[in-house]
């Protein structure tokens, strides 16, 4: 009985060992098969690197400002009697905008003119009498002073009446009206914004390392940010004397004509300024650049070899130095050679040595001066 039990245990152990050996061999074969498997090549588009000469220029975001711009305000307190303008209208220098109630001032003016007439007659009478030595010189001087005082009082009231007639200080375009008929205004209350729109200023910042190349009188081009906007030409008219400590930029001001008032104060615009000599670069689509904290790179298509020595079409990662951007293109300053075939789309799914399949049926945008489809 004991011998039979021992024999059964030996046979069972042998069976288990044989089964384990078979399974180990199966797992080893599967692991070898998985190791030999290669992922399918990724589909990418490519572009051949070509060297170009980019003229030196500086791009900046600017803000439009009026050469003359104010909010017309009430000079003296009073009640609005008449509004002589429409919101958004064009006005000329001196045009009446608002008339305040001046009935009290006109009554005061009538009284002052009557007093002036009495003072004038008394002064002329005293002038004749002093020549005949009929009155003292002191009486004549008092009459002369009263005459001048009455004249000054008349002029003061006339000036008050004139100051209650609010006029446009310069020619321009009005904004939205901020007063109503019958409204009581105190001194300094806003009436309406007024902007002179031709010419206009464009203010923008330039990095301190480029400040030395900015000269007064240099031409520049300005384009509004909205699609389809036209281009405006102007010249640099002022360069700030100090550098902003927060941004390390220096403020530059350009003046340009603005026919039709297309550019409005406060608008963002693109300013382009030519500077320096042309730069030799290799422009690539922005989609070809792989940005990373350790350095920017691109993937160059080339013939590679796998572990078994077989040649396949794959990519190698190449670190590059980037320059300025223009439209859809990024300038590569170093790291590439003309003639290199560079992956232009699909870089986010690639790694160094990955196999690829080129399909250039549809290419990404690659224009130095792109135009939106809806423009």
Structural description of this entry:
The chain has 375 residues and is of the alpha+beta class. Among the domains are: 42-54 and 278-358, conserved putative lor/sdh protein from methanococcus maripaludis s2 fold; 58-66 and 196-274, Beta Barrel (Elongation Factor Tu (Ef-tu), domain 3), CATH 2.40.30; 102-163, Helix Hairpins, CATH 1.10.287. The protein is built from 3 helices and 21 strands. Strand 16 (297-305) and strand 17 form a beta hairpin. Helix 2 (103-131) runs antiparallel to helix 3 (137-163). The longest helix is centred in the N-terminal third of the chain and has 35 residues, at 2-36.
Considering the chains and any ligands shown, give keywords for the structure:
375 residues; alpha+beta; Helix Hairpins; 6-stranded antiparallel β-barrel; 4-stranded antiparallel β-sheet
Question: How would you concisely characterize the structure shown here?
Answer:
The protein has 375 residues and is of the alpha+beta class. It has 3 helices and 21 strands. β11 and β12 (231-243) form a beta hairpin.
Along the chain, the helix and strand elements come as HEEEEEEHHEEEEEEEEEEEEEEE
Number of beta-strand segments: 21
CATH architectural category of the domain at 42-54 and 278-358:
Beta Barrel
What percent of residues are in strands?
Answer: 35-45%
Major beta sheet, specifics? 6 strands, antiparallel, barrel
Please, how many helices? 3
| Gyration radius over CA | 43 Å
Q: Please state the structural category.
A: alpha+beta
Tell me the CATH topology of the domain at 42-54 and 278-358.
conserved putative lor/sdh protein from methanococcus maripaludis s2 fold
Q: How far apart, in Å, are the first and last alpha carbons?
A: 99 Å
Unreliable parts: none
Outline: elongated
Q: How is the largest sheet built, in terms of strand order?
A: 3-10-13-12-11-14
* Mean pLDDT over all positions: 81
Helix content: 10-25%
CATH class of the domain at 42-54 and 278-358: Mainly Beta
């Amino acid at each position: 009985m004991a011998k039979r039990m021992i024999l059964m245990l030996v046979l069972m152990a042998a069976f288990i060992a044989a089964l384990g050996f078979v399974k180990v061999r199966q797992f080893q074969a599967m692991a070898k098969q998985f190791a030999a498997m290669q992922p399918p090549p990724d589909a990418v588009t490519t572009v051949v690197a070509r060297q170009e000469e980019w003229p030196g220029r500086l791009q900046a975001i600017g803000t439009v400002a009026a050469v003359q711009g104010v909010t017309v305000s009430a000079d003296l307190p009073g009640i609005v009697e008449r509004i002589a303008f429409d919101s958004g209208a064009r006005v000329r220098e001196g045009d009446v905008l608002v008339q305040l109630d001046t009935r009290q001032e006109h009554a005061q003016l009538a009284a002052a003119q009557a007093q002036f007439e009495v003072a004038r007659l008394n002064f002329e009478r005293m002038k004749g009498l002093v020549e005949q030595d009929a009155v003292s010189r002191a009486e004549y001087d008092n009459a002369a002073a009263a005459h001048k005082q009455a004249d000054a009082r008349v002029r003061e009231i006339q000036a008050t009446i004139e100051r209650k007639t609010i006029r446009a200080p310069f020619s321009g375009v009005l904004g939205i009206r901020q007063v109503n008929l019958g409204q009581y205004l105190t001194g300094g209350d806003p009436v309406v914004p007024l902007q002179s729109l031709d010419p206009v200023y464009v203010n923008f910042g330039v990095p301190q390392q480029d400040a030395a190349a900015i000269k007064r009188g240099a031409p520049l081009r300005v384009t509004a940010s909205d699609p389809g906007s036209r281009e405006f030409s102007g010249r640099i008219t002022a360069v700030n004397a100090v550098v902003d400590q927060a941004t390390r930029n220096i403020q530059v001001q350009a003046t340009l004509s603005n026919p039709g008032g297309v550019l409005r104060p406060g608008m963002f615009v693109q300013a382009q300024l030519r500077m320096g000599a042309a730069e030799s670069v290799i422009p690539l689509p922005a989609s070809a650049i792989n940005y990373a904290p350790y350095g920017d790179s691109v993937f160059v298509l080339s013939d590679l070899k796998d572990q078994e020595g077989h040649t396949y079409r794959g990519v190698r990662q190449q670190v590059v130095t980037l320059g300025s951007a223009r439209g859809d293109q990024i300038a590569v300053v170093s790291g590439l050679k003309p003639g290199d075939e560079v992956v232009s789309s699909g870089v986010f799914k690639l790694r160094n040595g990955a196999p690829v399949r080129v399909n250039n049926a549809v290419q990404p945008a690659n224009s130095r001066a792109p135009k939106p489809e809806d423009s």
